[in-house]
């Protein structure tokens, strides 16, 4: 082999690892350097490339999968298929906590004359590592008809505030604010006969807030915490999986 060929062979061997590293960074790179809007996304959270379906950096924890919607809104998936997840407002990695907005409820409450109800309690949509912080208060949404005497009495006493959500003359949704968080999920003291109810956490700073400000309370988000994830194991979190959750 001529000296020039030996030189080219040596150059290829020397450059190949660098080329592979550059290619890996282009496909995802270091998760600690990722950002969506104004939110830094780093371990244990990770972003997925929508084109390749690959994660950035090392094998991810599946429940910490974050979608970057319109390059500005980091969104955590819901545990319920085809249900909208949670928009992340900010993350404190030191305290393992973040503020988020329940997009499914917010989407319903922003509608007018809609026949879609806010079906699920926010807690039922959370994946296992995440918990609602007990410092939050709660907003309770009631689906009632005009004939519900308990709801009518509560409205007269100004305990409930009307929302924009209704289905013609069939039913309407009302809000109650300032309900303390209950870790056991027992809110029987706030039930109303003939009304369906869902519980949504809102910031602790909303103490004394009027239920008529329900949209702002939703947009302010609520505090979530997470447990330290278990070490990655291929049998638990395979590197390649089929994404079936719609944010």
From TrEMBL:
The keyword Signal is annotated on this UniProt entry: yes
Main subcellular location: membrane
Presence of keyword Magnesium: no
Location of this chain's protein in the cell: Membrane
Keywords, in A-Z order: Signal
One GO CC annotation: membrane
Residues annotated as domain Wall-associated receptor kinase galacturonan-binding: 31-101
Signal peptide location: 1-23
GO molecular function: polysaccharide binding
Membrane topology: Single-pass membrane protein
Protein name listed in UniProt: Wall-associated receptor kinase galacturonan-binding domain-containing protein
